[in-house]
Amino acid sequence: MSAWFDFAIEHLPYVLLGVPTTLGLWVSAMTIGAMLGLVLAWARIYGNRPIYVIATIYVEIFRGTPMLVQMFFIYLGLPEIGIVFDPLTAAVIAIGLNTAAYQAEYLRGAVRSVPMGQMTAARALGMGKFQGFVNIILPQALRRVIPQWSNEAILELKYTSIAYAIGVTEITARAEKIGYETFQFFEVFLLIAAIYVVMTSIVAQLLLLLEKKVSVPGL
Amino acid sequence: MLLRVENIHKSYGAAEILKGVSFDMAPGQSKVIMGPSGTGKSTLLRCINHLTPPDKGRIFVDGEELTAKNLNTMRQKVAFVFQDFNLFTHLRTVENVAIGPRKLRGFGKKAALDLAYKELERVGLSDRADAYPAELSGGQQQRASIARALAMEPKLILFDEPTSALDPELTGEVVSVMNKLASEGMTMLVVSHEIGFARKAADEIIFMEGGKIIEQGPPSQIFNAPQQDRTRAFLNVIEHGDDA
């Protein structure tokens, strides 16, 4: 055990240098996912037929294919038609587009769970559909979606590791490199696992705090 | 006329709910719509502010016709109080009342809150301003929703069975607020079987059956000398609570 600690302390700085990449990738992708997810959820609930169909096809494609395939497609496939991204950008786009599909579905469920009467009351006051959505439905739906959204956020934090496959030097990539240099794969991946657990636990606690802070009786 | 309801028709599929309803209301009047359930009273009320758009017929408020285009501005003149309150769950009581002025009437935050506190005082809820709807009793929720309607400073308030979701001991506090508003000159159109309000505050009772108005007149006439057998039979039931 103490041997592992010595190993961990020796290699920790190199691995930790990947943490900003991992977190940056995660925050960017989650942000893209939240914004696009909101638009998709709106389209799936309130959109007219063509808009609904487009949003539905999007969700089905991005939920129905592996994220790694999507990432390879964006990083390795798109250059063939002249669209080239650096690895980190490709990873942000791939994870962002993928999580958008899931976030849209969670949000759609949360919006649907807000009683109909809330929108009716907003419309009766004189609000338009969009005003009612922004002022009345969304604040309630966002509160209701936090538990599911937290799951998604934690899942995606771990999924940033697949960016390693297209050459992003986030923490998993760095761990693998140490592994091949030292041949101490057991030690290094134990170290990496510990770092992921620390990050996800902090994120989980922060989101739990947020959930408590914005909670309202009866919601 | 403040409100003109002209030949309103509404069908759901093959079922014709409203078969041509017309009446007028002058400013300051209170009218109560009564009649057996399933007779189109609530549908009529919802047609007036197009929560349920009528198939045929026209609605005029203050001489202006309500259409799909001016819906949102016209609804600010015609407030609606729901049977099940529909307060905004995520907002405190005072915010529920302030949100209309704030978002729709161009009030600043402070002015909207000031108005909201004033309207809450009118319905006797000042002490519950900071509570969330889930923390209020049914009667308090309905009074808050009346305050929300008042904060729009509407020309007319539509009440859709405002006491029927309440326990009997809570209806009194809502009815007394409604009586007070009527005496202050608020124009009110109320779907309700609340005899207390109808007798005391209504200028006219509209009795509906089968999607039509079959009788209307001042409460003294409707309650004491109804012209129609159906009206008499119905009033017997609601006044005595049996099948007489």
UniProtKB/TrEMBL annotation, chain A:
Gene Ontology biological-process annotations: amino acid transport
Compartments, as annotated in UniProt: Cell inner membrane; Cell membrane
GO CC aspect terms: ATP-binding cassette (ABC) transporter complex
Keywords tagged on the record: Amino-acid transport, Cell membrane, Membrane, Transmembrane, Transmembrane helix, Transport
Keyword Zinc: no
Coiled coil: none
Membrane topology: Multi-pass membrane protein
Family, per entry: Belongs to the binding-protein-dependent transport system permease family. HisMQ subfamily.
Name of this chain's protein: Amino acid ABC transporter permease
Species assigned in the record: Thalassospira mesophila
TrEMBL record, chain B:
Keywords, in A-Z order: Amino-acid transport, ATP-binding, Cell membrane, Membrane, Nucleotide-binding, Transport
Subcellular location: Cell membrane
Gene Ontology CC, one term: plasma membrane
InterPro entries cross-referenced by the UniProt entry: AAA+_ATPase (IPR003593), ABC_ATPase_HisP-typ (IPR030679), ABC_transporter-like_ATP-bd (IPR003439), ABC_transporter-like_CS (IPR017871), MetN_ABC_transporter-like (IPR050086), P-loop_NTPase (IPR027417)
Chief location category: membrane
Domain of life of the organism encoding this protein: Bacteria
Pfam families referenced in this protein's UniProt entry, alphabetically: ABC_tran (PF00005)
SUPFAM superfamilies reported in the protein's UniProt record: P-loop containing nucleoside triphosphate hydrolases
Family under the similarity heading: Belongs to the ABC transporter superfamily.
Protein name stated in the entry: Glutamine ABC transporter ATP-binding protein
Gene: glnQ
